[in-house]
Amino acid sequence: MGLRYFVKALLKWIFGIAMVLTFSTCSGPGGVRIIKMGHGLGVTHPVHEAMVYMADRIEEKSQGRMIVKVYPNQQLGTERELVELLQIGSLGMTKVSSATLESFAPPMQVLSMPYLFRDDAHRDKVLKGPIGQKLLLESEDFWLRGLCYYDAGKRSFYSKNKPIETPEDLKGLKIRVLESNMATNMIKSFGGSPTPISYGELYTALQQGIVDAAENNPPSLFTSRHYEVCKFYSINEHTAIPDVVIISTKVWNNLSQEEQQWIQEAADESADYQYKLWEASVELSLQEMEKAGVTITYPDPSPFRQAVEVMYDNFKTTQPELYDIIEEIRKTGE
């Protein structure tokens, strides 16, 4: 297995080097710089709309000298594959969950801790302040640079056969999770069986019974149409894991200071725009799913909070340096 993995990785690297000059960035007519950006969400998702807004702002700021082309719906690969393409410079930009970055920037794990933030104001103060901005740059050693955070809402459980009212309701169920150690440990703390599955494959997995339930925010549940299979949405809001817009350092480091400024300013502006889109999308998604016959409940979060305290205890013992960041986050804004 080790040799096969090495060969596969080597071939991917060779392919990336061969494509880097034509795939991630290229020059169009008149010396226009073109950057490709891929993601896995649909065109009606507020994240996609924010990316298009960012692309428009970059074109405006650069007076047409830089163009970002956005490719949705996993046209260029799954989230994990897109990250790998950024690392070798074969893709310019993407959006990922901060949970996906845990493998490349261990401090990012703290943002996946369940019930980490007191409320939205606390979360925003952390992400827009020194802690959040420092975390954006933690993955640079792995050729990934964070530009800004997008609101990915609060994740809750949706299921096929019954509502999830307490952690006990998760026992014996196969729960789809992000490819994240934190997400896996959280589901285990609740008593469920964590099952990592690509977002693009989840609808079929729910239909076929490969998993019994999943967890996500309202707009993602609605735009993915997973509610057609899962008629129970239990809003316990266990995590508020942000999305991160990232750029390949192999692209970033080849830009002029002025070009970098265009991208960073446009990314920050798109984040503000996305937050507004997200708020409206949450309300609309819940309304439309209720009309479609989804039973929406609001279970008491206290039992869920108690069940994951073991995760904080383990962090304090096994990863004290990361636990210090958690403590710093908890004290922010007090």
UniProtKB/TrEMBL annotation:
One Gene Ontology molecular-function label: carbohydrate binding
Xref: CDD domains: PBP2_TRAP_SBP_like_3
Pfam (any one): DctP
Residues passing through the membrane, by range: 13-32
Cited SUPFAM superfamilies: Periplasmic binding protein-like II (SSF53850)
GO biological process, one term: transmembrane transport
Keyword line: Membrane, Receptor, Signal, Transmembrane, Transmembrane helix
Gene3D superfamilies in the record: Bacterial extracellular solute-binding protein, family 7 (3.40.190.170)
One annotated Gene Ontology cellular component of this protein: outer membrane-bounded periplasmic space
Protein name: Extracytoplasmic solute receptor protein yiaO
Gene giving rise to this polypeptide: yiaO_1
